[in-house]
Predict the 3D structure of the following.
Amino acid sequence: MAPPLDNCLTRNEWICGRYYSTRASELTDALQQHVEIVLISVLLGLVIAAPLALLARRYRKLEGLIVGTTTAIYTIPSLALFSLLVPWTGLGRRTVVIGLALYSLTILVRNMIEGLRAVPADVREAALGMGYGRGRLLWRVELPLALPTIMAGLRVATVSTVALTTVGAILDYGGLGQLIVDGTTTTFHAQVLAATVLVVALAVVLDLLLVGVQRVLTPWTRRRTTSAEAVVPG
């Protein structure tokens, strides 16, 4: 006699293997959408934040305005911000992406400004003495030295965006957040748990990937750490 089928779905258990096997495509599609939203939003935030940070650094009078405005945007509740954007951007992907990109600005702009400001003055003077123009100084000297601080901000902005993306479910474009909302509404425990775990896992994976990218782009920081460890007595 065949054993009875696992009815964990019927029992509405939190951990249910049958849910993962029967809804794998649904989870995959939601995860793919979530990743897409996060990447596009953070990249858009970077594109907007870079010129704002450069303006703030060059014109000190604009720094307070730029930092204050991006901070003010971040204080707006996500539901309210999305609602404010809807009349101009409509329901769906565009509103979610723009809203998340705006939220990332306060972190990205601040870290870019602080990273560029932390570049030693004598390094700038040495580069200028070697004939570096403004553009070459920025790309060859200032940005590489500011990169650790910028990457730290990018990591925070990315992890924050992973979490905030779930709010996009109110516009029917929230990736894993859509599954969480639907599962909460119907008290579908397995779906809520699976989507939540995937959100957390995605945040951890993206953070680790950015750490790896930072290590590749800033090899001198590893050498400096190794040298410092070498002189510490055991």
User: Anything to note?
Assistant: Confidence is low (pLDDT under 50) at residues 226-234. The first helix runs from residue 17 to 22.
